[in-house]
Each structure stands twice: as C-alpha cells, then as structure tokens.
C-alpha cells in the first residue's frame, strides 16, 4: 500500500468484511489462566476492556468446545450455560466501546492428541508435560491408536453432532462478532495438517489434500452454522509445537489459503506469515514490534498484525505505536499465574507513566 508522507501503515483504516477497523493492531488470543472452573471471572472483563480502542479488533483467549477438549479449568469454555453467562458481561462491555471482538476456540486437551494411528502425538504431549514416566500400560495406548477416526469422533461428540458446531448454538446468546477456529500450536487440527506428526493411513493422512481434510471439514461445519463472514482460522504452518512440524510449510499454507477461499471466511490468522497468499484478509503474528509490523503492512505482506506479549504489557498499544512512545516490559513469570491483578490488570497506561 502506498503511504502518505509520515503515515504509519499499522494505524491506517482497514475494512474486514462488515467491520470498519480504525487501525491494524490486533490483540492476539492469549491463554492467561484466570478462569475458575472454565468460567470467566470479573478481572477478565477489566483485562480485555483495558485493551479496547475505538473500532479496533481483539481476539479472546482460546475457549474449549467441550469438557474433554480443554487442558485446564483455568482456561475458558463455551459449552455450558454457566460459561456463556460468564462471557456475557464481557461482550456487553465491548458492545458499548464499538470494538470488534471474536473468541478463539478449538480442541486443546490431551484426548485430541490420540488421533494419530501411532503414539507420536501422545508421546510428544507426555514429554511436554513431563508425564513420560507415569507408567501407563501399553494396552491403554494400543486401544487408543486402534480406533478409526469415525470411532474417535463418535466418542468425542455430543449427540453425534460436531463438537466444534454444537458449542456455537450459544453464539447468538452472548453476541460475539465471530469465532476464530484454533488450527495451530500442535493442537488437534494442527496435528492433522502436519506430515511430521500425522501418520494416518486413511483418508485423513498421507497426501496434502488428505491431511487438510479435517481442518476444512471443521471450517465447512462452522461456516454452515454461523456464516463465513463470522469465521476466522489460526494456523501455524511454520512452527513445530509438540513436534507437530511439516516438511513443506510454504506449500501447506498456500494450499490451505486457496482452499479456504471457497468458504469466504472473514480472515486467516497465520503465525510467522512470510508472504501474503492471494484472497481474503490475512493477520500475521509472531514476535512483531512496531517497526517490522509496520513494514509488513506497508509491503503488503499482511493486512493486520496480531500482538501478544506487547499488547499484554501495554493495554494502550495502538496509542503508544501512534506516538512512538516507550513500551512497558512484560513479566513472563506472571503470564499463567492465577493472580487477578499482578501481571494482568496492573500494567500502566501511557498517561500514568509520563
């Protein structure tokens, strides 16, 4: 995009579907572990409200789609009435601030890692959580890996309905602007996509088309439920979280981007996006600062830039970028603690630091 002299590309307006954004600085979905029993708590409303800006775009932290999809009760859910009630005050606050707000959701927990036909994904998750010496008998894992995909999904669904869509029954009730399907970071969808972890020999493994089949089926189901104009997806083709790597990530992301165009989804959110594929809105994430984020937009390598740690520590990040003001330093030791204030809602705004 051609810049006017002195213009900051990150802070230029952008139209994403029906949303008229005033700038391109997006809050990335960040797990913060402040829920209680999968239910949002009042400090979380303050945390997100602090990071609003007029006509901005925030993506809430990952929410599980069922009681066996989540890894921790400190992470939010969206599958029960109590959980939905917990989200409502937060979304109501956003309605008043004219901020666009989507929730990231997906299948995160340990059961999802059993969909490989061997023990690759299971063992990598055990190692990640220092559970490789728990002494679980081989018969347990042999039983898990012998199940077909349809048998797995029958176990993991509610009343034979896709768990990714049944949780969306509540969407109109708590009025999110949309949802972001979590297809990244070594979780369930990502495991199907990557050839270094997916060793299935059925229609969901082997070729690129087969490995992408499950992700596209989930997108199709969600789009049919709520419409493509309310759906985004997060991908990490260049990463290898939980040993979920791919031998040709460039080809993977290009194939997915082309396939996703068919569903006319709102956006595609990619970690470490190197070049923007054609079609649709792309959000790039992965350790950006002000200068390289601005350059990525100016050079048409992305449309929007998602910030995690910088936004976590600087609730007024778009304003600081506008003024090229100093940034608060984040404290990594407080990222996942349960403290409702320290390292969560106590990062100072610019006006309190001058």
From TrEMBL:
Domain NADH:flavin oxidoreductase/NADH oxidase N-terminal: 10-101, 176-258, 278-327
Requisite cofactors: FMN
Pfam families noted in UniProt: Oxidored_FMN
Entry-linked Gene3D superfamilies: Aldolase class I
Segments forming a coiled coil: none
Molecular functions per Gene Ontology: FMN binding; oxidoreductase activity
Protein's name according to its UniProt entry: Putative aldolase-type TIM barrel
Family that this chain belongs to: Belongs to the NADH:flavin oxidoreductase/NADH oxidase family.
InterPro entries per UniProt: Aldolase_TIM (IPR013785), OxRdtase_FMN_N (IPR001155), Oye-like (IPR045247)
Biological source species: Helianthus annuus
Keywords: Flavoprotein, FMN, NADP
